[in-house]
Amino acid sequence: MRPLNLCINIFSGFIYEQQITMLLLRRTAQAGKHGRSFSASQTLLSERKGLVLGVFEKEGEEGGLHLTEAAARFDQTLSGKLSELLKISGPTLKQGKSRIFYGIHKDFPCVAVVGLGKTTAGVCGSENWDTSKENVRQAMSAGCQLLQDLEVKHVEVDGCGDAQSAAEGAGLGLFQYDQLKSKKKNKVTTQLHGSADSADWQKGVTYAEGQNLARMLMEAPANHITPTAFANTIEEKLAPHAERVTIHKRSQAWIEQQQMGAFLSVSRGSEEPPVFLELHYNGSPDSKQAPLLLVGKGITFDSGGISLKPSPSMDAMRADMGGAATVCASIVTAAALKLPVNIIGLAPLCENMPSGKATKPGDVVVAKNGKTIQVDNTDAEGRLVLADALCYGHTFNPRAIVNVATLTGAIDVALGSAATGVFTNSDWLWEQLQKASVMTGDRVWRMPLFQHYTRQVTDCQLADLNNVGKYSRSGGACTAAAFLREFVTAPHWAHLDIAGVMSNKDEVPYLRKGMSGRPTRTLVEFAAGLVHKG
């Protein structure tokens, strides 16, 4: 029996039937008094509107709960019914756990309540992130996904005292790449519950949209996101910001004119023409401000070339342009936020394919700076396209250079999906990146750039450099970084190897399974942090 069509979904614990019966009997009288109708036929089926609220564990009180400000106000409008239901519906909601209540409010047929953990959570030195922000992201993502599965069309989200993190969690959690499917996931619109912190909420929405753009580019099949299609997509996304952005889609003729022999050695095996995408975001009121230079590896499909990859999981190499995707998405996000900083983005885009024209193992090519490279493994191609892009990027006299690439499987072996590996010649730059990652929860970890690794790529039989280390797989991520350093003269440079964070299975709770778009938000937060730096 369900009086007033009230249906309570409880995921854990015991249902105390007598207590619920008494509660509902009291509500019958109160509903009549306040003129509220809890008819499922009028609300559940027609409005499809939901609400996600957060609740903290009360410190020092076993089983105690502490409602967020928004949840407390909502509870007050119901004369304490939400609190009563939470008490009698099972054990205390732990961090990330949830319950759904139906029909308790005339405006919200479905209300999801999610645990936020302890109120004292904050920056955790051992985890290298802000635990409270991560808890909010996870909770709001979980609540929104529950309501999406119930085909709720519009969800209001509790700001939980951190509206930006709440918006990020909601936006990231609801994303799913289904553009090419006939049956699509229920589309959900979200808004902040209440008007407070609306600016922070919108900032979080923009951050999430930026990462979702990178996820879309990485997830899309390689026959849909060719180098040309990639460049056109970014041009389209930047069109609303045309007054601050200049876009150059450089052709193969331009690449040849620039003598980018390393880049061309990778693209030559494919029928798809390469594109060198160059973005200039002029956000600073000081036009003479030195720009931040972001460089992203843009291999839109990596077969390995003549050094062909094994066929299992080769389809995932559609995301080998993850560096270019995150770099370009971060510039789109910076433009949407109107960040007062100048940024230049470079994305050498091409496919790495085998053919009669493809580079062969043992071939020697000449990079833009004149250094010769013996290509012993054509599947170590990312460092080749980045080498020429880094040489070109120095002509802009940037304040700092950050290149991003799904460069080596070795970084996945070393760090897994927990963090992006960072190799840098600048303590200052490392501090800025690390600080940004603590805020976003998309972590970075510093890796070594010893001369030990440099000697392994400069000890080469036929050329100045070898594109693989002399000891094969040993320290592969480190020798790749050492190779790139041979094309850097700037005092503030960082190489981000994102191969380990390219995709998500279930490691990050607020990202569904698929390509992750990491570390877009960290790049944006890093750029925003430079606004007040010299």
From TrEMBL:
Q: Where is the Cytosol aminopeptidase domain?
A: 377-384
Q: Which PROSITE patterns match?
A: CYTOSOL_AP
> EC number(s) per UniProt?
3.4.11.1, 3.4.11.5, 3.4.13.23
What are the BP-aspect GO terms? Answer: proteolysis
Please tell me where this protein is predominantly located. Answer: cytoplasm
- Name its co-factor(s): Zn(2+); Mn(2+)
A UniProt-annotated Pfam family: Peptidase_M17
What Gene Ontology terms describe where this protein resides (cellular component)? Answer: cytoplasm
Cellular compartments annotated: Cytoplasm
State whether it acts alone or in a complex, and with which partners, per the record. Answer: Homohexamer.
Q: What is this protein called?
A: Cytosol aminopeptidase
Q: Which organism is it from?
A: Champsocephalus gunnari (Mackerel icefish)
